[in-house]
Amino acid sequence: MLITYSRPQDLDPQQLDPAAPAADLDPAGYECEAETVDVLGTPWSCTRRRAHTDDEHRAVFGQLGDGPADAVAIAWAYEHGGAGYGPASPEAVHTITVTVTFPESASIGVAADHIAADVLSSFWECDHDHVRVAVTSSTRLA
Questions:
Q1: Contact, 74 vs 48, CB < 8 A?
Q2: Which of 6, 120, 129, 133 sits between 20 and 30 A of 87, alpha carbons compared?
């Protein structure tokens, strides 16, 4: 991850930074929601409109912290990103379906969040915003 903008510490909490990128908020309030953690350990999620066409994510102060509510606090992108690489990328999308069937007695330690994390670990960290993992579970009599 590359931080492409971080609000300068020396600005007054309500002062706008003319060097900040546009917030690119959706009028209906829909958000991209890609997540990151800044160098100080603060979690952020992208508040830009859904399906923005580049790989730069931005979070406004309305979420966290002191600053103007609609001003960008942090922006980030990925090393091999750029225009057309984001969630609206024209690249083909691949779907892999895996079905795992096991008896109830073998389910100790099996959890949907662990399965999702294991699948996500197969991808480069910089691709995590673009990989969707859905795990569903059901039980039936044999």
A1: no
A2: 6
Q: pLDDT tens string for the chain (142 positions)?
A: 788 899 888 888 788 899 999 999 999 989 988 888 887 888 889 999 988 878 889 999 875 566 777 889 999 886 555 545 555 556 677 788 888 888 888 888 888 888 888 888 887 665 666 677 888 888 888 6
Beta bridge partners of residue 68, listed in sequence order: none
Question: Can you give the pTM of this predicted structure?
Answer: 0.57
Q: Which of 35, 76, 63, 34 is nearest to 51 (CA)?
A: 34
